[in-house]
Amino acid sequence: MKEGASAPSFFVRIMIEFTAMLTSKEFTRAFPAFQKIPVPLMQEMLSSSRTQAIPSGARIYAEGDGCTAIAFVLSGEIRVYKVGETGREITLYEIGPGETCILNASCILAHTTYPAHAVAASNVDVLLVPSTVFRRLVTENEVLRDFVFALLSQRLSLVMELVEEVAFGRVDERLMGYLIEKSENNSLDTTHQKIANDLGTSREVVSRLLKDFERKGQVRLSRNSITLLKR
Amino acid sequence: MKEGASAPSFFVRIMIEFTAMLTSKEFTRAFPAFQKIPVPLMQEMLSSSRTQAIPSGARIYAEGDGCTAIAFVLSGEIRVYKVGETGREITLYEIGPGETCILNASCILAHTTYPAHAVAASNVDVLLVPSTVFRRLVTENEVLRDFVFALLSQRLSLVMELVEEVAFGRVDERLMGYLIEKSENNSLDTTHQKIANDLGTSREVVSRLLKDFERKGQVRLSRNSITLLKR
DNA sequence: GTTTGTCTGTGACTTAGTCACAGAGGAAAT
DNA sequence: ATTTCCTCTGTGACTAAGTCACAGACAAAC
């Protein structure tokens, strides 16, 4: 999944490795489209792969890293983001169960390096397929090719939408949309800094806008928590 | 290339259609990687395709359009861009000779609609390959698959870079970089509005920044023309 | 209970974008 | 050649967004 001459970072070192092979049934529960893959190919893929548990916060990729495997997410979320020169961040998209880290596929098939940063947004379980196996399976199997194409296309469209949002969108509208999307039971536990990192803006702007929302009666604020009020 | 229930736009109607079949040699001059494609497949592709000349300024795609063909650019430039609610534009990337309109490939292979706008930035010559033929050739031929994958990956990386530029970059630095990149013999003929459309900013901001550059002795301005001075 | 680090809010500033408007330049019409 | 009209450019006045510095509240760690 990640190669480099440097010693593994602290986070990489604490990854827990499962040695038991994932069953076809367990895998296709998260990836239903793979039911169409011939059993011998599925068996080969699973027997040459390994599962990995990644704790929340663990850095998975840095920009410029090479790829030796592609990760299929079984559970949890991986956040893919860019970092600017001033240290500000913006989330490009998140990878959930049933998706792959499609930039892995780009790296493997187009022989490039990882063009963003990736971090575990929660505890994550992945199936790691070695790049040589993956490359050959993509060549041989149309279902897998279609899956990868579809995900790459979807990501391209999504990132193009993000360009439009960032270039033309008002931050207050993006923020409200974010709160609505990310909340569960009209509430979310997060920090202003994390919201700013997702939206690609500055922490002070998020604090100011949230304060405005509170004054307007749209939200209730407390430390590490935001509650959406009925409107 | 473009389908829709509405009558063809003015620009589409004036497209000139070439009926002579493109030779393999002519095609591989623009697309060298295709020399590896077996001759029967190349012949089939060329015999079922047609070339098209598109005049500068012609609208090629609007967001939401379906695709019936994929365009391979033989000469000229196609500009792919997004438009915000307020009418402002931002160029995502440009497609030159030796490239395809890769969003066509996304549409064809992943059964989606065109996720941006495309316009001829100059007089353009394209080879139009019908989507059914393209889909089958991608399935059968690894060279074509690799080509499409590589271009899709490249575009994804490029658009992710653009997110970073737009989110974190200073407009004056992006503008100077743009002028340097787009000028020939330290000069470019364009308008402030066109620059603003490429960079996703407003015309007044470009005018103000160019005036600042002029005051600093970095450029010389005249109507429809900007000259870079030595620094 | 105290200390320290994280989180939040705000002031003062600059940069970027909007809206309105005016003037210059040049293409088109006469 | 002159006039008209359209495009292009520049600027003022405003708001929104981002930066930098700083202070205070909260809560985790000791």
Description of the molecule:
Two copies of one chain form a homodimer. Mean pLDDT of chain A is 88; it is low at 1-18. In chain A, helix 8 (192-199) packs across helix 9 (203-215). Helices cover 43% and strands 23% of the residues of chain A. The first copy, chain A, has a four-stranded antiparallel β-sheet. A four-stranded antiparallel β-sheet of chain A has the order 3-7-5-6. Chain A has a three-stranded antiparallel β-sheet with strand order 9-11-10. By secondary structure, chain A is α+β, with helices and mostly antiparallel strands. The first copy, chain A, is elongated, with a radius of gyration of 19 Å. Chain A has helices spanning 10-13, 24-30, 39-47, 102-110, 131-140, 142-168, 171-182, 192-199, 203-215; strands at residues 16-17, 50-54, 59-61, 69-75, 78-83, 89-95, 117-120, 124-130, 187-189, 219-222, 225-228. Chain A contains nine helices and eleven strands. Chains A and B meet through helix 4 and helix 6 of A and helix 4 and helix 6 of B. Chain A binds a DNA duplex (30 and 30 nucleotides) through residues 86, 88, 170-172, 191-193, 201-205, 207-208, 210-211, 221, 223-224.
